[in-house]
Amino acid sequence: MIALRSKRTISIVSAISAALLLLAGCSSSAKNDASTAAPSVPKVAMADAVGAGEGALNIVIWAGYAENGSSDKAVDWVTPFEKATGCKVNAKVGNTSDEMVTLMKSGEYDGVSASGDATLRLIYGGDVAPVNTSLVPNYSTVSDFLKDKPWNSVAGQMYGIPHGWGANVLAYNPAKVTTPPTSWGAVFDPASPYKGAITAYDSPIYIADAALYLMKTQPDLAITDPYSLDEKQFNAAVDLLKAQKLIVGEYWSDYTKAVQSFESGNTVMGTSWQVIANLINGDKKVAVESIVPSEGATGWSDTWMISAKAKHPNCMYKWMDHIISPTANAQVAEWFGEAPSQTLSCAETSDKSFCDTYHATDAMYASQIHYWTTPTTACLDGRGNICKDYAAWTQAWTAIKG
Amino acid sequence: MHLSKSARYVLALLTSITLLFIYVPLLVVVINSFNPSKTFSWPPSSLSTLWWSKAFHNEGVISALMTSIKAGVGASVIALLLGSGLAFAVARYEFFGKETISLLVVLPIALPGIITGIALNSAFRIILQPFGVGLGLFTVIIGHATFCIVIVYNNLLARLRRVGSTLEEASGDLGADTWQTFRYVTFPTIRSSLVAGALLAFALSFDEIVVTTFTSGAEIETLPQWIFNNLFRPNQAPIVNVVAAVLIIGFALPVWLSQRLSQGAPAGGRI
Amino acid sequence: MKTFSVWLYQHRRGRLALLLTAPMLWLVVAYLGSLATMLVSAFWSVDTFTGKLVKQLTFNNFSLLFTNHVYRDIALRSIVVALLVTVIDVLLALPIALFLAKVLPIRFRNFAVVLIVLPLWSSYLVKTYAWRTMFSNSGVLAWALKPLGITPPSYGLLATTLTLAYLWLPYMILPIYAGLERIPDSLLEASGDLGASAGKTYRNIVMPILYPAVIAGSIFTFSLSLGDYIVVKIVGGKTQLFANVIYDNIGTAGNLPFAAAAAIFPIVTVLGYLFFVRRSGALENF
Lengths: 402, 271, 286
What we know:
The complex is a heterotrimer. Chain A is an alpha/beta fold. Chain A has helices spanning 2-26, 79-85, 97-105, 116-124, 185-188, 207-217, 231-245, 255-264, 274-283, 313-323, 326-336, 354-357, 363-367, 390-401; strands spanning 56-61, 88-93, 111-114, 128-129, 153-154, 157-158, 161-167, 169-172, 198-201, 248-252, 269-272, 289-291, 297-307, 339-340, 369-371. Chain A has two domains: 56-164 and 302-361, D-Maltodextrin-Binding Protein, domain 2, CATH 3.40.190.10; 169-272 and 376-401, Periplasmic binding protein-like II (D-Maltodextrin-Binding Protein, domain 2). Helices cover 36% and strands 16% of the residues of chain A. In chain A, α7 runs parallel beside α14 (390-401) and α8 crosses α9. Chain C contains 13 helices and two strands. Chain C has a two-stranded antiparallel sheet. Chains in contact: A-B, A-C, B-C. The interface between B and C is large, with 95 and 107 residues.
């Protein structure tokens, strides 16, 4: 009886799978040449005027980019915007760049604060529209070294408004880590005395951190850009991370977790963001130091982009102008702990040395940070089509975590 | 059952330990709602009502609560209609494929929520979006109703099987039509199990996050989504503990009520 | 209204159709239809750069899933965790259900059941974060166990298993309790009076009722554990489960085809389990 039953089950299952195959195959004739040609940017119309606000604005943000006073009464650049424009802001936090891309592809949002590892995917996917910078008055005083960059423009056309930038820092708890680290080697040392109390960022893009370390410590691999890795270079970085897993206590991807982990003592050292360090130090349970190690650091340079399907385009243009206005940009930069893009912001920060601390207007410093960029088969350093693309990075990340 | 005195004591002891296991984490939640730390790290350095007063002035939580209530009511009503239809059919009729219904109806809740979520999400995109219907409260209700049907179905089926159909037949023999029989005979006997099923369906919908994530879109936020979003914003995270503490207390009454109502339904049907 | 009612009275098939049409449309067309739509995409791929679906028949997703041992390891780990959670819950649920159904005076039972159900309705996320607090190095467990010289498990697989067992425990207690409550004491006494040994009573009376109840509970504990990706992110340290593979591909990487292919593993596992337990009548038991 059981045998009979399972036989029937098997026949049902195979019938269903046959039907599925048929369905899947039906549309196979559609497009064949998509992947072979060099990617071209889909044509998306650009706005030529900004009219009255539509009353609402749905945006995807990094946590802390749209504060409305609910976290801290004094920290509020959304309410003034809502009052001035009548656009009610509805902000959705994306925890990783991948999540932001997925959210933007849903077509439900008007805009996003995208990092460099998301921007190109959105541009080439036709999910965002080019930005008419003449409709954003505050754009003229944005730091020049952030304009027309590979991660925010294509062929001289800006696809967004630079928001701010920063480095992924090495944070450590000096009470536990007695010799201050100066190199990323501290989080890759298999014999680390802090085994089990190291943390790392839970995203495929973290492979670039390993590549950056290898770039400086193993010259024979000849890595020139941590986001352009050929087979051999890529495997070396992945192996380094697999070895690192043995000393990692936990991976983090949201910052409540990162803060708690340091505060409870589960983590004493690892890659972090300045804002996390600020929160920990603000809580006064433990103190952490944050440094940019000798190898330099990976980092982000964020860009406000407008969706190709924005339901509230006027509100989004108004928002893009508001968020880089000197006051708002100073507020968000101080709250998040990053360098503001607006040069005039430096006069508006509550801590007058803020821009110096973050090297906000220092083009030299900015050039030493390897900003998150989407890895593609076409190497970004011009070696041809021999590099691992982001899909390979994603699958490798699953394999690293095991 | 003949349980020796010592067996009874052992059982009582084990029960107390399990109850402790169940309630200690909830106690941690309540204590943490008085923790002034921005990330509720343990142990609290002091106690304060800071987050309680912040929670009561938080607009986001109120509107999320309203959204959750709407979604829960919508899903329960649909589940009530569909689930009772199925239960009547299975309890009172013979038809082809009857024995696969119990499997079919349990599937949406037995398959991991992420699968139901992805499946509905891709279907909504393909079928609804061409008509200009975006993701929103409507799609959340559809998603929740799908896995709530089984709750109403099982509750009612157990009741129908227990009471049998003799009373209904008698009513028919005495000249009552279908509507009268339902109104005066069937309905009074099943009313309490319908209420219990609906309440439980509501509660299940109220705490659902995974299916909701994939069916809600940008415009709406249910309470669990609000909690999820705010847990990852350190400056808001402690308010979440306050909301959770309030929820535990707020739910005591409806849960007790549904327990009272479903009493006597021998097949349990409580969840 | 009246004529329709009369018509219904006369047409048994009509009544049945009225009852069945809407729910069957919903479950078969809408739900199974969506599942099929999703499964079709498992044979497609996604343009890695633009994230657009490429609707061409391919088996790459499956070959990757089957050839890379990582996915097999994660799948096995997930099944072990789901089974462990189920076993822990059965062990915890049996005594408490027995106590409630057979020892506790009837007037206290409602209250006791409410005590057990109540935690289900406080937020799942908040409870998970409470466990994160409990397991942390300076947490409640470390603090409570320190005098005994025991170091509690840190974030990892064990913490994940315990947290999942905690979350789904009420789903196991309730059906077992309902099953036990259904056995009248008189039946057990009669069995004893007629000369059956305790073992025989257990085998012939208690087991046939307990078995489907445990199965009903296990459907929840097993499949909820198999589908969870949030708990392991919060208390799992550096480990991951199969639902994470699905979520990471759809929720973050936007790779629906690969996620759909991966989803076939839990679908087959759960379906297999349901087929296996269907004969016990457990599907109508919760």
